[in-house]
Amino acid sequence: MAERNLKQRIGAGEQIIGANVGMSHTLDQLKKVVESGRFDFLWVDGQHSAFSEERLVAFCDRADTVNADVMFRIKHTYQSYLVGNLLDLGPAGIEVPQVETEATVEEAVGFFYYPQQGLRSWGGEARRKVSEVGGDRLQYAAWWNNYGVLMMQLESIPAVTGARRLARAGVDCLSFGPNDLMYSIEAHPNHPFRDVDDCVRHVVDQLEDSETMVCFRNHAPEDREKYVDMGVTVFLENPDL
């Protein structure tokens, strides 16, 4: 077991690989992913996939059985106010899609962290490791604030050009959504960023003096090295199941 948790490893600039899985994955499938040794966390989607609170709790329970952290992408940017509620259901991290404004980041950060770092409300029996860490309010809050992982997803030219402003304290990663980003690039035919790789290079450069890292959906391991060379440290890949 690693001495540093996922948040600390991301912050230290380690190469981190997340497994893109679904809420319908069985315990045996998740066990296979974890035991492959290739992945550092599980990523599951609530934006483009059907989910309910009960399904999320059940999925996180299965992930907990194999001691895997779950990163959950929420349904919509405008639901950043629900980040704390969703964390009460078991995820170890949240990804907010289609982020463009500092107001969205401020809201997400506020509801992600407990006081005095944030505004997250106390409660929830399904929270990540609550039975292990203990139910003492201040003890768990301090543990969580140094454990949970928060990502903001960049999916437009305005988001990319404003990346440095979005990388505020408490944001562990700025992640890329390449497909929606391409729509935005196509809508700005005269912009100097002509493809996703141009955008990745710009964001990595903008975050050079920041504690926020860059996450990229490369999906296949063979596509990882190109982005490593650009300075990306966190990746999302598809496991072989």
What's the CATH architecture?
A: Alpha-Beta Barrel
Q: Tally the beta strands.
A: 8
CATH superfamily, by name, is: Phosphoenolpyruvate-binding domains
Radius of gyration: 17 Å
Uncertain runs are none
CATH topology, what is it called?
TIM Barrel
The residue-averaged pLDDT reads 96
Structural class of the helices, strands and pairings? Answer: alpha/beta
Order of strands, main sheet, comes to 1-2-3-4-5-6-7-8
Q: What can be said about the biggest beta sheet?
A: 8 strands, parallel, barrel
Strand content: 15-25%
Number of helices: 12
Q: Please state the overall shape, judged from the principal axes of the Cα atoms.
A: globular
| The level-1 CATH class | Alpha Beta
Distance between the termini: 24 Å
Count of structural domains: 1
Instruction: Write down the secondary-structure element order.
Output: HEHEHEHEHHHEHHEHHEHE
Q: Portion of residues in helices? A: 25-40%
Characteristics:
241 residues; alpha/beta; TIM Barrel; 12 helices; globular
Report what the structure shows.
This protein has 241 residues and is α/β, with parallel strands linked by helices. The chain has a single domain, classed as Alpha-Beta Barrel (TIM Barrel). It is 39% helix and 16% strand. It has helices at residues 6-11, 27-35, 53-65, 83-87, 102-112, 130-133, 137-145, 157-161, 163-166, 178-187, 196-206, 224-230, and strands spanning 16-20, 41-45, 70-73, 93-96, 149-154, 173-176, 213-219, 234-237. It has an 8-stranded parallel beta barrel with strand order 1-2-3-4-5-6-7-8. The longest helix has 13 residues, at 53-65. The two termini are 24 Å apart. The relative contact order is 0.15. The model has no long low-confidence stretch (mean pLDDT 96).
